[in-house]
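Sanity check

After download, print the first record. It should look like this:
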Amino acid sequence: EDQNMYQYILEGFDNEWSNWTLAGFKEYSNLPDGNYTFRVKARNIYGIESDEAQYRFAILPPWYRTIWAYIGYIVALIILVYGVIMINLRRLRKANYLLEKAVKERTEEIMRQKEEISEINENLLLQQEELKTTVETLYDMQEHLIKSEKMANLGQLIAGIAHEINSPLGAIKASVNDINNNSREILLQLPELIKKLNEKEFRLFLELVSRSSQVSLPSNSKEERFFKRALQKKLEEINLPDAAYKADTLVDMGIHDDIDYFIDILGNGKINSLQVAYNLSQLIKNGRTIETAIERASKMVQALKGYSHNASREEKAEANITEGIITVLTLFQNQLKYRIQLDTEFEPVPKIYCYPDELNQVWTNLITNAIDAMDGKGRLSISVANQGEWIIVKVGDTGKGIPAEVQTRIFDAFFSTKPAGEGSGLGLFITKEIIDKHGGKIVFETKAGIGTTFIISLPVLTRIHKN
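Expected structure tokens:
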């Protein structure tokens, strides 16, 4: 018996039969999970071989790599996303409540002031016959009082809320709508995705979502178009279907390099996992947009009291003009994504000493007006450049242009080219006030049917010391 020889092979691990050996056993360690068949043959001293013996067995994966574990991970992710949504919705409701309360209080105050003015007018009319010699003076005083009240209260307070608070509220509303739509799509698509993707594909899917939520988007539209063209060409070279769509989606998610790592999931025809990953990443980014918008809305409400007296309580600080514009553009992301082409050209510029929040209000006003002038469809161009001691910002649109007969009044308070009830007429007035406050200049170039470009010049100043 000791002279018998044996030959072994472990299918699923060994590539070929072992050499004949006198050892009557074979040891294996650290086998990966999977299915195996152990086969053995014996040969006696006369060279006669026995029949082959087989033993089939399986190595099970650890619990944290089972399908139930991955389902648990997905459920945890859904619960986390849902929790983020609910927290943001609660914040939104609270912010809306505070804004409605502030508007209501200011409206009641203005109504009381209007009633007081009305009573003064009635008293003046009753005394008109007795005070004929002074009626002209009283009339001038009355008109001055009405104009002062209208400018100080309606202009600086109510119009400031109505005009400026629309931007963060619009961003919050658009983001919430996107979250609701994406959530419904994700909840419908995730079960099918879990069912159809294998373990490797599902890991790639989770990593794609994770990477998209962490990376930064291209800094300008020119860079974005370059990445999309380069990525589309690469996908076409490997014969990946729908290369243009996949390139656009990936760049929109902020992913444009190291794409070879995700080829397996991009070429998977079983389910559009890329769209699900895009929806998940947008859901996370919309949550961040809501937080930014709520914070900005709160700051504007706090700033209204100071602005009503034509003086801001905000302290001056060093700020980067380009960063402020990018922050404002983030709030308009949903409006600019589909129907409006955004072209940006940002040169490196030095920081300036300014009121950052007020300048952000300027960019918000100009971008809002540009979108309205184009009826939400066209090309919006924004550039920042350094020219000597000045920083030049240009905001252009491809809208209808400004009619020649109203160009001299475009910066007047309460003047608007919009239909009655659709604008306060204070957007450009407030914009010019802020630019003047910073020692800058604002002009515009316009042509009917081609568009309008506003040109803002801000001085590069050192720190201004208070007296």
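If your output differs, re-run the checksum step. Summary of this record's structure: The longest strand covers residues 34-43.
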